[in-house]
């Protein structure tokens, strides 16, 4: 960022220097309007819009790699029975892949307020896709799975659409978390209370919304320097024994531990556990998930890679890969081809899921689905909201 030209004029200059300084001022004056175009104060120099809008490749890499883990873990669900090792890997991935995704969502929600343009964007990029894909998944199950009684319910999210309604609720409450003094302890307390409250019910999948809330709130509190610290070499080295220990523990716990603790969709009582275990497990899983998330973030490359551009299309990958998983399930593919549960089958399933979600994140798919994932809908909003 440079300063206004007049700030460079401190004292009379020799003729040659004055001429040089005059040329410098002309250059700065010609550049200043372009640099200040994105600022609110007229005449104040600021970075060029192109620089302000430039995406950070690190976060696009995080989002892409996280969505690949989401898709692969979903693909493992129908075929991991009977494989203790796969179940252990599944537990590790499920421990941190959604927390990492939610934490990044919180980080990029820091500037959210209830101004008209941002409310419009929240509606068009979160609420509208939720309505469209909740309807699409319900109809898909009704006809592809021969389930004529499958109802379309916008208050009972089906499969992976819960994340959209959760993101809507989290983002709407962002001003609250930014206003209170100790947001993370409060969010953890709410998550603990939710884990021991079976009467919350299934509406809007509030159990998940509340139990995953601390990760979103933590993301709101993070700053760029926190991610710089995470990416240090010593953190990467420490993450290796961390993941090794997690794998050993998961292999031991695989036949003993309920997967419901990872889904966070039910209270402790609904899983047949003592009520107090809900609060204990909320804190334990939060700590474990945070440690594994840090380990994951430490290894994400910071520079642009071939997959970096795909990070901008993760919403398409997330919303579309469920049709592939559920379609194979409805068709009886996993029941018919039992070899998919074996070592070779698990590798094939993983590769297919990874390649499929990669294609779904491509810019071509993003442009084709923009009408559903980010519609303009200026006709539905007042002029103040329509302007971005």
UniProtKB/TrEMBL annotation:
The keyword GTP-binding does not apply. It comes from the Bacteria. Residues 29-50 have a biased composition (Low complexity). GO terms for molecular function: acyltransferase activity. The chain crosses the membrane at residues 58-76, 88-109, 121-140, 152-170, 235-254, 274-299, 306-325, 337-361. Residues 57-359 form the Acyltransferase domain. InterPro entries: Acyl_transf_3_dom, Nod_factor_acetyltransferase. Residues 12-50 are annotated as: Disordered. The keyword Protein biosynthesis does not apply. Keywords: Acyltransferase, Membrane, Transferase, Transmembrane, Transmembrane helix. Pfam families: Acyl_transf_3 (PF01757). This is Acyltransferase family protein. The lineage of its organism: Bacteria, Bacillati, Actinomycetota, Actinomycetes, Kitasatosporales.
């Amino acid at each position: 960022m440079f300063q206004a030209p007049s700030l460079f004029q401190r004292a009379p200059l020799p003729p040659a220097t004055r001429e040089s300084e005059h040329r410098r001022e002309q250059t700065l004056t010609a550049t200043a309007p372009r640099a200040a175009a994105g600022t609110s104060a007229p005449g104040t120099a600021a970075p060029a819009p192109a620089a302000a809008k430039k995406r950070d490749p690190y976060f696009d890499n995080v989002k892409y790699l996280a969505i690949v883990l989401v898709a692969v873990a979903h693909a493992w669900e129908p075929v991991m029975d009977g494989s203790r090792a796969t179940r252990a890997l599944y537990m590790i991935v499920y421990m941190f892949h959604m927390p990492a995704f939610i934490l990044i969502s919180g980080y990029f929600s820091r500037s959210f307020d209830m101004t008209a343009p941002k409310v419009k964007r929240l509606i068009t990029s979160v609420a509208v896709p939720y309505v469209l894909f909740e309807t699409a998944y319900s109809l898909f199950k009704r006809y592809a799975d021969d389930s004529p009684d499958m109802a379309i319910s916008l208050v009972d999210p089906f499969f992976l659409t819960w994340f959209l309604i959760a993101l809507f609720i989290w983002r709407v409450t962002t001003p609250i978390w930014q206003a209170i003094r100790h947001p993370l302890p409060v969010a953890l307390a709410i998550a603990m209370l939710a884990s021991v409250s079976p009467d919350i019910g299934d509406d809007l999948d509030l159990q998940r919304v509340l139990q995953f809330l601390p990760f979103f709130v933590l993301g709101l509190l993070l700053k760029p320097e926190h991610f710089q610290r995470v990416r240090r070499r010593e953190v990467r080295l420490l993450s290796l024994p961390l993941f090794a220990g997690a794998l050993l523990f998961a292999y031991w716990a695989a036949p003993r531990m309920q997967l419901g603790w990872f889904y966070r969709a039910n209270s402790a009582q609904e899983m047949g556990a003592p009520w107090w275990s809900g609060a204990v497990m909320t804190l334990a899983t939060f700590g474990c998930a945070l440690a594994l998330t840090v380990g994951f973030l430490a290894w994400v490359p910071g520079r642009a890679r071939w997959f970096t551009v795909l990070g901008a299309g993760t919403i398409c990958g997330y919303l579309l890969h469920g049709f592939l998983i559920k379609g194979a399930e409805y068709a009886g593919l996993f029941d018919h081809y039992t070899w998919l549960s074996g070592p070779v089958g698990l590798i094939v399933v993983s590769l297919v899921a990874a390649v499929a979600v990669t294609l779904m994140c491509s810019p071509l798919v993003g442009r084709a689905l923009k009408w559903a994932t980010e519609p303009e809908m200026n006709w539905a909003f007042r002029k103040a909201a329509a302007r971005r």
